[in-house]
Amino acid sequence: MRIIDRHILTEMIGPFIFGVAAFTSLMFAGKELFQVTQLLAEFHAPVWRAAQLVLLHIPGLVVLTLPMSMLLATLLGFGRLSSDSETVALFAGGISMYRIVLPVIVMAVVVTGMSFVLGEYVAPYTNSEHQRIVQEIKKTQGSSSKPFFVIDAKDGVTNSVFYVQNGFDMASGTLRGVALVQYVEGKPAVFIHGEKAIWLGEDNWEFRDGYIKTLGTKPTVMTEFNGTQARRTRIDKTPEQIAMFQKKHDEMSFGQLRGYISMLLQHGADVAEYEVRLYQKIAMPLTTLVFALIGAPLGLRPHRSSSATGLGLSIVIIFAYWIFMHYMTILGRNAAISPMLASFLPTGACAAVGVGLIIRASK
């Protein structure tokens, strides 16, 4: 039986590697290629920097293309076995469909594990580094990050809101161009503006070169501070927590994103979209196993055995899955359905279809 397992896996490995290369190249050409070209032409980025961006972007793409490649591998691999009547010989020898699919499931589990590792440990770092380099190349406005705002709240009560205009230097813990509104009993009480705010530790930030203005009182009092003067204030946010407000979901691991969601919940913010993305970090790798269950029985049909037909069928299935997943994502993001259900329903539905196809093929 080990010979049969090895033979089936051999038929699948080639198409799988081809699928990873082909689908990754197509997805790269669809978006990243234009950005790299713009950086070279408009911002005069060095060629080695462009090559670095390409390499950093690949792990995030591979996480998405592994399930597609697994589907293509099963369709082409089993299609080849079916076209040469090898599956007929296996069935005649008393080997069941369930036993034939076993090596496929083992391979799919291994690839699913690879996808989890890439998505949890590799892709967040490479995506974050990719974004940092892009911002570094585009540093024409004196900022390596886009503007953002942070709400400091506890138990649904807002303590302060601050807006960062010119970005954040994580290495030195410095916010550039900061406007802070402090609240007392739910009402704005103090407005502080500084050219920069520096982290001092223990929730203390030092505002420099700006002014402080009282709010809600008559008359309004404004006091400037600059040079050696500074305004120290407490903000219940560390540089690491503030940096999370600038990151996208694909730049955070499962644990980081879950921590970010917990922080947002303390502010009373809507976290439905982030919860959908959180659960998709689990659901997406599992799609590799699900696509293997679908591809194996479909590849057994003789009229679907050619490579062109197998490739076309895989594209149709992938396209249908992405439409369904995108629709569920919208519903989950808008809280029309549970974020967990929105994330796992496409994968669960495809799993049911795959199991049904295998049961039907075994009869």
Judging from the principal axes of the Cα atoms, what is the shape? elongated
Mean pLDDT: 83
Overall radius of gyration: 27 Å
Proportion in β-strands: 15-25%
Distance between the ends = 21 Å
User: What's the helical proportion of residues?
Assistant: 55-70%
Task: Supply the number of helical segments.
Answer: 10
Number of strands: 8
How does the helix and strand content classify structurally? alpha+beta
Q: Report the order of strands and helices.
A: HHHHHEEEEEEEEHHHHH
Can you summarize the main beta sheet? 8 strands, antiparallel
Question: Spans of 5+ residues with little confidence (pLDDT < 50)?
Answer: 140-144
Please explain how this structure is put together.
With 363 residues, this protein is an alpha+beta fold. 61% of the residues lie in helices and 17% in strands. Strands 1, 2, 3, 4, 5, 6, 7 and 8 form an eight-stranded antiparallel sheet that branches. 34% of the residues are buried.
